[in-house]
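Operator note (shift B, R.M.): manual run for LysR family transcriptional regulator requested after the automated queue skipped it. Running by hand, logging everything below so the morning shift can see what happened. Input copied straight from the record, untouched. If output looks odd, do not overwrite the archive copy; leave it for review.
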Amino acid sequence: MIDPRRLRVLRALADHGTVTAAGQALHLTPSAVSQQLAALEAECGQQLLRRWGRRVSLTPAGELMVVHANAVAAELERAQATLAALDSGVQGQVRLASFASAITMVVAPAIAALRAGSPGVSVLVQDVEGHASIPLLLDGEVDLAITEEYRLSPRTDESRLTRFPLYVEPFDVVLPTAHRLAEASEVDIDELADDDWIAPKPGNPCRDVLMIVCANPGIRHVSDDFHAITTLVAAGEGVALVPRNAFTAVPGAVTVPLRGEPPLRRVFAAVRRGSADHPLLKTVLSELLEASPNHANAGEGNHL
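Run finished. Output pasted below as returned.
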């Protein structure tokens, strides 16, 4: 008989790549992870892992078991949601991860609405970068994630997530007020080819957007905090590409729209597949959608 708890360990290994990282995600020691995986191999009667010293990778049988592990996890989420639905009272806590501007745009208004209409529901918010929230969700550290999507970030988690579009926002150029184009009604990105840039750190999808729309930008400073980026722009240290709702006014900096079709950031809420019907999550998702400024149009527009 295959123990579903061990399937969770196998999924963590597939997600994080090493026994040590899987253990950190599951709050287990590397030794405990190795023991669970060895026991799972015995239960399956198949070799699930290839081992080279301390390095491991999945065999074809291991990859197949990850697919089944995802299906089992979704069914367990559904079972929990169904049981919770038997209770007519909606009460409890939802752990939510979101990036800063989405907290301002939709999360905080949704929490205010919940306090008035569903006082038994509380939301515990973690402020994390958009690309970091999905791993937290898949690891079970949070129940709901507000994150972002670009064409350059292909979906690799369709079997594991249910998504709810919230809003779409374009990227604008942030310029010092003394910049030669600061008073323009719109800017062609090629006009900034020789400027210094202030950009997010490598690995942040917003940096990838800049690298695609601007050939070989000269990046002078790096930060994942858009307010810090804007402050550096105001100090005359360069220009930046920032999602519209992430911009906060700073003396000395202005935003100018891009000419033509700008790159877009699509913002959505995500839950683990099978959990969307949980009464707590349904209640919070409903308020997030209600708070979204243009969720009815979130499926429209162009991807980068």
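Quick read of the result: The first strand starts at residue 49 and ends at 52. Confidence is low (pLDDT under 50) at residues 296-304.
Leaving this for review. - R.M.
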